[in-house]
Amino acid sequence: MKVIFEHQSHPAGLGFLVKEYVQTYFTSSFHFHDLYELIWIKKSYGKLYAGKNIMNFQEGDVYLFGPGFGHCFYNEKTFIEQGEKAHAVAIFFKADFLGEGFFENAAYVRVRDMLDKSSFGLHIQHTPTPIHDLFTTLTKQNGMDELITFLKLLNEVSRLPQMDVKVLNETLSVMKLTNKDSARLEPVLKYVIENFRDELDSKTAATLIHLNEAAFCRYFKRRMEQTFSQFVNNVRIIHATNLLLTEEWDVLRICYESGFKNLSYFNRQFREITNQSPKEYRKAFRGANEALVMDNQTD
């Protein structure tokens, strides 16, 4: 996919920058910075491509990406069709915005460890409201007040329980590489994420990057370390996991809403990717004793 380097700098020359985005949908291509990025999704949902992984993102999520970590937020068509605005607040900052080696001090070890882990991408889960309030406050401040609030925000995020901080990649992101070849896969990624509920085929995907089908399949597998059909199924299953936790639909409907046409194949792919059946996944995350709307078919 296309990998873009985005330069961010504060007009006053400070080592951090607060930006608020209110858009019809998020428009950035797959990109990376030479800065850290701490971002709060105030309003929006869709798919996040982070490093080598793809996952759901939703309203209230907070993420921390280290320098060089490739990422991109894609809104789903259903969000855009609702007519709502995508809204996010992001803070970009240098490792030494408080001076060389500031976070090496033992008193700030929690922040330093968090910044180290952000090289792999971090999802701050179950973020408490006070953290969201600090993001909002930052958009209304400048100067010393802005700096103090930002330090409070870093401190509060670093103090969250370890179970609430999910590492997004097991290894450093390889997507930060600026290989010219990577630009070719951007249209394919958008094609899948925007149309995963419909019939997708490698022949159509191949035409988007001007390759024949056989050459495209070889190229895609070499570059993405998975086949095109595996990538499509992964996007669909990720979408299904979100529906299982947010909707009271039966598994059959979720199967169809996620782009699958066959329940048995959906169940098989779901277990292969998550190591659980759809029912097991729902129970594990929502509680085995909760009253759930389930289908009557065997997984």
UniProtKB/TrEMBL annotation:
The keyword Transcription applies. GO terms for molecular function: DNA-binding transcription factor activity; sequence-specific DNA binding. Residues 186-284 form the HTH araC/xylS-type domain. SUPFAM superfamilies: Homeodomain-like, RmlC-like cupins. The keyword Transcription regulation applies. Keywords: DNA-binding, Transcription, Transcription regulation. This is AraC family transcriptional regulator.
